[in-house]
Design a protein that fits this description.
Distance between the termini: 147 Å
Subcellular location: Cytoplasm
Keywords: Chaperone, Cytoplasm, Stress response
Number of strands: 6
Protein name: Protein GrpE
Shape: rod-shaped
Family: Belongs to the GrpE family.
Structural class: alpha+beta
Order of helices and strands: HHHEEEEEE
Subunit structure: Homodimer.
């Protein structure tokens, strides 16, 4: 078939030419529409990505803030518990050693009564007075003991720096006497597990 046998666009009827032109325009419009839809999707995706990043940042910030608050809460709880333990311990010590100050103040009176008993009684009146002093001293010593205050053993004991205060030393007569208390100058007392007053002693060296 020769070229002349195929009709050109010019040879087509007017109606067919219009249809062909509309089809071509429709194809172009379709391409433009597809491109526009693609662009619109890309534009819509951009704000979504930005919003997602913002949400992720907010979640991370809130998570960190929650950790900080939890850490502060745990620290506060630990401080409260430590304070309660200290308070309980201090209160227990106050109850346990409530008589310490009173006992310490009474010791000077006990010392004076013991010194008064060392005075020789020559007559009946002096002997009666001495008897009254002895009874008073016994009552005080008993009251101290009932409240947990007892005399420290010192005479003849091995010197203990936690219980005895050496104010003088003398030569030891033998090896057994060395580092032992040979004389008590002032009695010492303990209050439960505390040294209320160390014994003032003379130690053999």
């Amino acid at each position: 078939m020769s070229k002349e046998e195929f009709p050109s666009e010019k040879d087509l009827p007017q109606e067919d030419q219009e249809k062909q032109a509309k089809a071509a325009e429709a194809d172009k419009a379709g391409v433009k529409d597809d491109k526009r839809v693609k662009d619109d999707k890309e534009e819509a995706a951009k704000p979504a990505d930005v919003e997602l990043d913002q949400l992720k940042a907010e979640v991370a910030a809130l998570t960190q803030k929650n950790k900080d608050l939890e850490d502060k809460y745990l620290r506060s709880q630990a401080e409260i518990q430590n304070a309660q333990r200290r308070y309980s311990k201090e209160r227990a010590n106050l109850v346990k050693y409530e008589s310490q100050r009173l006992g310490k103040d009474i010791l000077s009176s006990v010392d004076n009564l013991e010194r008064a008993l060392q005075v020789k009684a020559d007559d009946e009146a002096s002997r009666q007075l001495k008897k009254g002093i002895e009874m008073t001293l016994e009552g005080l010593v008993r009251a101290l003991k009932d409240n947990g205050i007892e005399e420290i053993k010192a005479d003849g004991e091995k010197f203990d720096p936690t219980l005895h205060q050496a104010v003088q030393s003398v030569p030891a007569e033998n090896d057994e006497q060395k580092d032992h208390v040979v004389q008590v100058l002032q009695k010492g007392y303990v209050y439960k597990d505390r040294v209320l007053r160390p014994a003032m002693v003379v130690v053999a060296q």
